Amino acid sequence: MAELLLILPGLIEATVKIVGLVFLVILPMVAYSVYAERRFSALLQDRVGPNRVGIPFTKISLAGLGQPMADGLKFILKEDFTPAHVRKLYYWLAPALTMVPALLTCAVLPFGGYLKVPFVDEPFRLVIADLDVGILFVFAIASLGVYGIVLAGWASNSKYPFLGGIRSSSQMISYEISLGLSVIPILMIYGDLNLGSIVQQQHEHGWALLPVTLDGLKPVISMRDLALLVPLSISFVIFVTSLFAETNRLPFDLPECETELVAGYHTEYSSMKFALFFLGEYAAMIIGSGFAVTLFLGGWSLPFGLGSDGSDSLFWGLVGIGTFFAKVIGFILFFIWIRWSIPRFRYDQLMRLGWVFFFEIALFNILLTAAILMIFRQS
Amino acid sequence: MAIVVKRPKLNIFERMYLPAIAKGLLITLSHAIKRLRGQTKVTMQYPEEKWDSELPDYYRGAPTLVKDEQGRERCVSCQLCEFICPPRAITITPGEIPSGDTWAKVEKRPEEFEIDMIRCIYCGMCEEVCPEQAIFLRKDYAITGTTRAEMVHDKEKLYEIGGVREGLVNKWNELK
Ligand code: SF4
Ligand code: SF4
Fold first, then answer.
1. Quick check: A47 and B43 CB within 8 A?
2. Which ranges of chain B does DSSP label H, i.e. alpha helix?
């Protein structure tokens, strides 16, 4: 009993964070990123996009902000059709297997610095699980996402899903390597696998891609940081491109590829099961954006080391959360912008890009980082 | 004979692919900005915005029957329109004009005249074929109804939308 009382506060804290982050932030964000995608793509293509659905039974349309609710309701009400020729167990398992890893990775995502709540002495760390192996955890879980797609392709027992599943597994495996390698320079520079402390260091010394701090009003940048910008920019390009491939977004959406494969791995799915794939893709995109922001763009910190990490005031804690989500939303818009600007790659080009270019460049980049760190050794 | 298509030689920037991506992104962004500033023409938001005032004269809306300036039904129930109508939307029940009537010399008029607006394809053949210029396509396009029966326009309804048209055919009155 006494033990239970000891872990109880931690348990409550974790539950609040999980419910707050996953159910109140990430899932609504998933729904609304679909809306954002539709509206933003409409802007890019000289269209209007969904602007009608608002509050039901009234004429208030709110620029279509009710659309995600209507879409969700539609998915729930549709017939959930299971074809007779599928392998039932795996067929049912697959959608869950895409959604769950996508959401699981957000456990180590620091979505703010600290939150100092009145009447509580110790400020709360704004991360669900403050793991010291944060990045490893992310890679381990994120690569599980491919199982969902492969299972869906295989269990559907039909040719287009099967091809989609095969494509996705080879694509994800190829790009996982460059994704992992592109992060190594960051780890070498910050000397830490804990995402929270990586952001903390970026907060103190400027973002990885903007290593500028302010001395009064004069911007300061050290030679070492300037030199490190080169490998970090390369890393960033590789990381972002691999992220596109990992999340199956255009220009790398070959597992779905409507023009060739009908709908790829989810051809045989309908209703909420299809929606799970669909939303899983968006959840992966949001959380992927979260990681890109955390690793390269300073996470929750303001540029130039402004503000504080929120361990002493509630205000800065909230500013941190706001900054983080503002950056994530900006990154999601970038995702959408890319999707509607660049045509799909051919499959051999995709594999060549992954294995021949990114893999080598990422390896070389690690050496480059090491060399720069050697030259500017701060002993 | 085989034609050899020469592949263009790409320079280093084109092969790097990234400048091309940046260019593509700028193009889409410029479209987005133009759209945001309202410089792009987009689809009309229908029930709120309408095109009614700009409909061209030749616009083909709902087919209707018209009367002439003396209130006479122009249609003489010759049934040419019924015959020509490609989807067979028109059904006419011809009737005789009794001898006491002012227009007894016209002899025939429709007892009942129905156009099924679910069938009508707004082709305008009826208007073209009518020897009496009694049937015209008006500019009404929002023909709605909650039942199939409601979508069948009877004679009364057709005259209601059609109204009066003057001139054109004068062979039945004194002016001839
Ligand atoms: S417009 Fe064409 S389809 Fe309609 S009633 Fe006349 S002839 Fe028939
Ligand atoms: S509308 Fe014209 S074509 Fe049709 S029956 Fe009457 S007179 Fe003949």
1. yes
2. 12-16, 18-36, 80-84, 125-129, 155-162
Q: Identify which of A359, A339, A370, A250 has the alpha carbon closest to the alpha carbon of residue A40.
A: A339
Residue B148 lies in a domain: yes
Question: How much is the pTM?
Answer: 0.77
Instruction: Return the sign of the alpha-carbon dihedral for residues A235, A237, A240, A242.
Output: negative
Are the beta carbons of B31 and A48 separated by less than 8 Å? no
Minimal CA separation from B47 to chain A, in Å: 12
Asked if B21's CB is within 8 angstroms of A340's CB, the reply is no
Atom 8, ligand 1: which residue's CA is nearest? B85
Cα(first)–Cα(last) distance of chain A, in Å?
51
Q: What is the mean pLDDT of residues A188-212?
A: 79
**Domain limits at B88?**
63-172
Residues with beta carbon inside 6 Å of ligand 2? B 75-81, 92, 129-130, 132, 134-135
Beta bridge partners, B152, equal B116
CA distances A52 to A29, A48, B17, Å, are 20, 10, 39
Which pLDDT tens digit goes with each residue over B78-116?
999 999 999 999 999 999 888 888 888 888 889 899 999
Count of A-B CB contacts under 8 Å: 38
Interchain contact, B25 vs A341, CB within 8 Å: yes
Residue B27 falls within a domain, yes or no? no
User: How many domains is chain B partitioned into structurally?
Assistant: 1
Q: B111 alpha carbon to ligand 1 midpoint, in Å?
A: 19
How far does residue B74's CA lie from ligand 2's centre (Å)? Answer: 8
Q: Does the Cβ of B80 fall within 6 Å of ligand 1?
A: no
Edge to edge, what strands does the sheet with B108-116 contain? Answer: B90-96, B108-116, B152-153
CATH number at residue B89: 3.30.70.3270
**Is the N-terminal amide bond of A251 cis, ω within 30° of 0?**
yes
B101 assigned to some structural domain: yes
> Is B128 part of any domain?
yes
pLDDT at B87: 93
Rounded mean pLDDT, B22-49? 85
**Ligand 2, atom 3, residue with closest C-alpha:** B130
